[in-house]
């Protein structure tokens, strides 16, 4: 019998995930959608004519669902997820799980107290470029990991994050959390430990100087996205509130001694992530992040700059979003709802990414000093590491 899935927040993210979760007769179907916006509900009715479409979260949660996808703007993630957990409905919550650390911790505590399953949508743990790099590390190809550097060139940043609610720190805390939660989670995963101290710097260097602003209520990101929106200083129609940083960088000290850094820029001409992982016996670096691209390995000594000692092709795992990762993400979630067990994603890791992102934002908006990341209760950690059993 199909799992009955609900969606809360029928925006841009719902389109790619809906396609993976709505497979009538093949294991799951979207049975209900909740959104406060009339335009979103109208779109949902056209896409899902047999589903319950409502603006009432209570109506959705009492409609007999097995699970719900929480795809709202970030500031509503925790409140919606906690209500669903209290109702006994398994939760898929898009990252970041919360924009406040206390809310993230409450979500974990609620999941444990109620016994309702929670899953956080860190799809990069399924991205082929990341899984390939993790396999090389696990095989010992570069020895013991000692440092990880990530540069994130967010070439679509102006269109993606500065023309809607993402630009308002009340809705996101900041892009070092909203966008950086992905990469912080990957850094933790590749290193095998979480950050215990973070220190950051950043600024609103470009988009804060653009005065052309307007309310885009009723519009969606594809309505204004164009590669012709260049250079960044030429952009128009930014969100009325723009108070998040468009360039930021954070240094992280991890509990196992690994040192990491993450840099994010929202006004580059190109759009991709570059990871360098350095171990005691070599280093790996991705030279692209899409299927068909290359991960390079250096593990012999060279006199200067040198071609890689080996190269590996990033595999193609399908045409779903994020290099095929979205299909793997939803498939894992549905299996988890049905059967339980361990998953590649981790609610504890999601919380640690939120903690590092929030405290790094505090650091960059302060004097850049290092801030300690508060640890979780070991018993709570153990519960989730057992697969929420």
What are the defining features of this structure?
389 residues; 15 strands; Dihydrodipicolinate Reductase, domain 2; 9-stranded mixed sheet; 22% strand; Rossmann fold; 6-stranded parallel sheet; 2 domains; globular; alpha/beta
Task: Describe the protein.
The chain is of the alpha/beta class and 389 residues long. The chain folds into two domains: 3-121 and 326-340, Rossmann fold, CATH 3.40.50; 125-320, Dihydrodipicolinate Reductase, domain 2 (2-Layer Sandwich). Helix content is 33%, strand content 22%. The protein is built from 14 helices and 15 strands. It has helices spanning 12-21, 38-47, 57-61, 77-86, 101-114, 128-138, 157-161, 169-172, 175-178, 180-191, 221-224, 325-339, 347-364, 378-385; strands at residues 3-8, 28-34, 52-54, 67-70, 90-94, 118-121, 145-153, 195-203, 247-254, 259-265, 272-279, 282-286, 294-298, 310-313, 371-372. The strands form two sheets. It has a nine-stranded mixed beta sheet with strand order 14-13-12-11-7-10-9-8-15, covered by helices on one side. β9 and β10 (259-265) form a beta hairpin. The radius of gyration is 21 Å and the shape is globular. The two termini are 24 Å apart. The mean pLDDT is 96.
């Amino acid at each position: 019998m199909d799992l009955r899935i609900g969606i809360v927040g029928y925006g841009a993210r719902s389109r790619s995930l809906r396609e993976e979760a709505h497979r009538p007769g093949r294991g799951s179907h979207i049975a209900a959608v909740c959104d406060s916006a009339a335009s979103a509900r109208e779109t949902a009715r056209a896409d899902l004519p047999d589903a319950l479409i409502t603006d009432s979260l209570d109506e959705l949660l009492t409609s007999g669902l097995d699970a719900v996808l929480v795809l709202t703007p970030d500031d509503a993630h925790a409140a919606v997820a906690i209500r669903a957990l209290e109702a006994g409905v398994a939760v898929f919550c898009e990252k970041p799980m919360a924009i406040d650390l206390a809310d993230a911790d409450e979500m974990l505590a609620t999941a444990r107290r109620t016994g309702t399953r929670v899953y956080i949508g860190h799809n990069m743990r399924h991205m082929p470029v990341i899984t390939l790099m993790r396999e090389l590390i696990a095989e010992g190809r570069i020895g013991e990991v000692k440092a990880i550097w990530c540069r994130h060139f967010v070439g679509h940043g102006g269109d993606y994050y500065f023309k809607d609610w993402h630009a308002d720190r009340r809705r996101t805390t900041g892009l070092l959390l909203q966008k950086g939660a992905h990469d912080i989670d990957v850094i933790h995963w590749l290193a095998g430990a979480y950050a215990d101290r973070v220190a950051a710097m950043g600024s609103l260097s470009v988009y804060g100087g653009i005065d052309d602003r307007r309310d885009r209520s009723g519009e969606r990101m594809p309505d204004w996205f164009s590669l012709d929106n260049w250079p960044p200083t030429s952009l128009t129609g930014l969100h009325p509130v723009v108070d998040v940083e468009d360039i930021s960088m954070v240094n992280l000290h991890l509990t196992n001694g690994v040192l990491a850094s993450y840099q994010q820029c929202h006004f580059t001409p190109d759009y991709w992530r570059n990871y360098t992982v350095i171990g005691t016996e070599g280093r790996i670096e991705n030279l692209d992040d899409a299927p068909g691209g290359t991960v390079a390995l250096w593990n012999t000594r060279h006199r200067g700059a040198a071609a890689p000692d080996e190269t590996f092709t990033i595999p193609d795992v399908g045409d779903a979003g994020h290099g095929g990762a979205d299909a793997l993400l939803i498939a894992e979630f549905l299996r988890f709802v049905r059967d339980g067990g361990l998953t590649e994603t981790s609610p504890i890791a999601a919380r640690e990414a939120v903690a590092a992102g929030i405290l790094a934002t505090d650091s960059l908006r302060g004097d850049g000093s290092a801030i300690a990341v508060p640890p979780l209760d070991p018993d709570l950690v153990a519960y989730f590491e057992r697969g929420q059993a």
